[in-house]
Amino acid sequence: MKRRETRKVKIGNIFIGGDSKITVQSMTNTDTRNVEKTVEQINTLEKYGCDIVRCAVPDIEACEAVSKIVKLVNIPVVADIHFDYKLALKCIEYNISGLRINPGNIGSFERVKLVAEAAKEKQIPIRIGVNSGSLDKKLLDKYGKVCPDALVESALEHINILEKVNFNDIVISIKSSDVMQMIESYRLISEKVDYPLHLGVTEAGTLWRGTIKSSIGIGTLISEGIGDTIRVSLTGDPVDEVKTGKEILKALGCIKSGVEFISCPTCGRTEIDLINIAKEVERRLDSTNKDIKVAVMGCVVNGPGEAREADIGIAGGKGEGLIFKKGKIIKKVKEENLVDELMKEINNI
Fold it and tell me: What per-residue string of b and e applies to 78-89 under the rule 16 or more CB within 10 Å gives b?
């Protein structure tokens, strides 16, 4: 899979675009003004592999809080700002790693110029975020509805504003809750500009539905070489966004670090409680940072062979199971001890 060539943009201590890895982002859902809670959530997100985090900055109190937050966390923090250019200027002053604004929404050309010049001086990139739910009325009138052409035109208008003030450290997102609309919008914009693209299906939904929609939208584009950074937008714990994003990238072969977990769907040959065993193994692996492939299989006849590429795994029998490494059986264990014994072997790898 060949990635589309884009510019490289630095955000904090990492890069987006060019030959950089595809990064995983999330957004805090704490009140930004609560420094302790926000820092705690950011540190948890980092633990699960979040590369970049965004915080809402609705007022000056939140802005002041950000000045403390950036000093207490390790990963780059992006300030999400709507309309008030003064908040953007303050966040730049407080050494934020990035800004998420729409230049057309913060007022006059002079205001945009002030923000762009301040950001350029501090080498702080700006992400332009176009959203299907907040499309400009004139574009809705022109196209008659929200559509990929309207979304892309909106993005190009915002890009043009920044380019007029000689600002080019730009990342672009064009998000829609409609998966096919999102896919087509990114395809169109990727043909028109070489700025890095931030992928996401906005308002994707709860964990189950949101994961499906995001996997299809983000996965389709990454498989086509489009996309430099991603966020899975879910209603719930932001940790699930990061975990899902990492799994999407693993499934596409974009990253190979961390645990890869596989399990069989079960069938009439299954004679152990494989579903709950698989859930428990997956839960315990949540805190494992080893780069290993773990398999939980239901059949002692086919399990080890089918999962021979796994570093370690279980194959179930009647009230017992086999633990195998690289397809070779190393021990037989009673069903009730399978998970504990498997985890012992994993810890020894």
Answer: bbbbbebbbbbb
Confidence check: pLDDT of 262 > 80: yes
Alpha-helical runs (H) found in 193-324: 207-223, 238-251, 274-285, 303-306
* Separation between Cα atoms, residue 95 and residue 50, nearest integer Å: 20
Q: Where are the alpha helices (DSSP H) in 53-123?
A: 60-72, 85-93, 109-121
User: Could you say which DSSP state residue 2 is in?
Assistant: P
pLDDT mean over 232-249: 95
Mean per-residue pLDDT of the chain: 90
Q: List 38's β-bridge partners, or say none.
A: none
Report the alpha-carbon angle 72-75-76, nearest 5. Answer: 100
Q: What Rg, from alpha-carbon coordinates, does the chain have? A: 23
What are the residue boundaries of the structural domains of the chain, listed by start? 9-251, 260-347
| CA 125 – CA 76 distance, rounded (Å) | 11
The CATH number assigned to the domain with range 260-347 reads 3.30.413.10
Question: What CATH number has the domain spanning 9-251?
Answer: 3.20.20.20
- Alpha-helical (H) ranges within the chain are 35-47, 60-72, 85-93, 109-121, 137-143, 148-164, 179-192, 207-223, 238-251, 274-285, 303-306, 338-347
Residue from 324, 331, 284, 288 nearest 308 by CA? 324
Q: What is the DSSP letter of 103?
A: G
Kindly state the tokens that stand for 67. Answer: 């000045």
Verdict on whether the full-model pTM lies above 0.70: yes
